[in-house]
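Most newcomers find our protein records easier to grasp once they have seen one. Each record describes a single protein and holds just a pair of labelled lines. A learned vocabulary of local backbone shapes supplies the integers on the structure line. Nothing more is needed to start thinking about how sequence determines fold. The record below serves as our worked example for the rest of this section.
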Amino acid sequence: MKFRTRSHFARGAWIGAVSVSAVLLAGCAAAPGTAAQASGNPSIPPPTSSVSASAAAGSPSSPAKMICEDETRSNIVRILGLASTPRTTNTWKDRLYTCTYALPAGPFVLSVREAADPAAARAYFDQQQAVVRGTRIGGLANLGFPAFQTATSAVFVKDSFVLTVDASSLPAVVGPQQIANGAFAYQVATTVLACWSE
């Protein structure tokens, strides 16, 4: 079992490395100097406390909004080989910014939880991992950030943000390369993190 887990994350690391390289080659929009993000899964209960400076202003931060903007849309189109850009809808509620992509195969959800500070973000991340019984991502596959994965999602925490990418409504395999939906979620999460880190 341990060998299988390591093998799974080794494949994830390879997929992530390829996707991050592709994003860096394609270029990302400049993120604010405090770029650090995270997303929350709409199927996971909200945290007991999470407030950020941008949230206090009544709107999500620029880094959070990147999950629903051109660079992320373009990466999803490229990864899945889509003929057109999918329609998106977004919401901002209780410090959670959610962007849902209406893909031909089903809804694909990215979200960013904005917490008061890094400690609150980490507490929220730990709470979510316990709720969904996610497996911690280690080694190079976590890109240096606390992260966990389920069979259909990937969750990363960076600074005061928790990023969740949820492919649970998609078929088991997606795209022309027929990648597992969980691997797709991981790949998209790493492209977002690459943009936030620029």
